[in-house]
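[Automated response] Your request has been received and processed.

Submitted sequence:
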Amino acid sequence: MLCGCCGDEAATGEKTVEKTAADTVRQKGCAGCHPDVSLVPPHDLACEVCHRGDPEADREESAHAGLIARPAHPDHMGDTCGSCHEDLSRQCAGSLHFTLRNEVNLVRGHFGADEPLPGLLEIPVHDEPTGILAMADDMLRRRCLRCHVYSPGDDYPLTRRGTGCAACHMAFAEGRPRSHQLLARPTDQQCLSCHYGNVVGADYYGRYEHDYNWEYRTPYVTREPYPRAYGVEYHDLAPDIHLQRGLACIDCHRGRQLMTGGQAAPTCTTCHRMPGNEDEALPDNVVRADTTLTLTSAGDGKTHVIPPRTHPAHAEYGSKVACQVCHAQWAFNDSTTHLLYSESEIYWDWERLTVQGSFEIERFLEHNLNSDEDELPPMMRDGITSAMRPGVWYQGFTQRRWEDMLIRRDSDGVIKVFRPVLDLRLSAINSEDTVLLDSVAGKGSGLLPYTPHTTGPAGLFYRNRFAGLLEPFSPVSAP
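Generated structure:
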């Protein structure tokens, strides 16, 4: 036993046996170890309803038997969330936010795939990718698809989040849940935990990523590590006018559209009507009083009057020109995106490009370039299964610009804003530094139409943006 004065072993010679956490007897019930967890209606359920385990056990090992740490994960949400929200849980599993089938099939089709896949889980796994499509599959699984509900997100302060239903309905801070209170309505922070970087959503807040090269990533704070909320510093450009007025993402992108895909995506004309269209159906958060439409925002709770489309240009060009051709203040224009699969152990070429928009690659490069410890092997995890495989994916750009929007005529005849979404070049080098692929492109130019979330006034010279694309050509004139 221990001496009560100094803590040394007493003269009896008995030895102290330290109890491990698993052996320590505790108060029965989850609250014995987790006293700070508080729940609120309607989710004030017993812990085991969602997390399973044995609430009657008085030891950690037996209490955690069968524990589900992430009950909202897609692998479990049917049994947990679905026990109360059966239809919604089933519909979510097939929604675009869960399958990412649009993104998956756009990239795979661009690099030669003949048949579409149901979603990201069906992307083939290639232990030793050879050929352009196999490289594209590996790139999707290990470099691109990090923002999906099967993953808790990248390890940056504002990109770590929940999985499955919790990705949208649980608030996180510094990589951990703020509480066990589930959000009935996601805030913009939940949206931006995936829609960051040069992705639609970040532009709504006026954010445009700096280039990866260290000389462009101002401000020059220090050479020591410092937190970057979304992985890469960003320019503060003009935010969307709807954000300036207090509207949140879900004011336009409603729950049913996001969770089930059962509703068409909103357009500007969903709310901004032409005079005389008063009889058309309205979103559930928009009300009509005579000829005036108002929206109550989930962001600030205020009521906003929705301006109608009364300018004569809307009647003249509305069927020929997409709204954002005139109203977008700026647009994403990253061209060309270069992606290199590498098994090489030569790292000094990347000294100026250690920030890669990927915490895993950043940590790998910083360690191998600056640490005195043994080098890490060039391996990278699968973003879907977390399995490690040889080879890492580096990324870079020919240029990153926002000033000049790319305006083209789409296949449906409508003039729209485009961006080089698929302007990709894939390269590969093996462990013997032999080049396997060298800047291989896919089909076509890689330009796709998109909707910049950078809305603002059209300006006096709005016709200059599209006059040359009109058929037949009409001279530019003042409105």
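Summary generated for your ticket: The radius of gyration is 27 Å. Residues 333-468 form one domain.
If you did not submit this request, please reply to this message.
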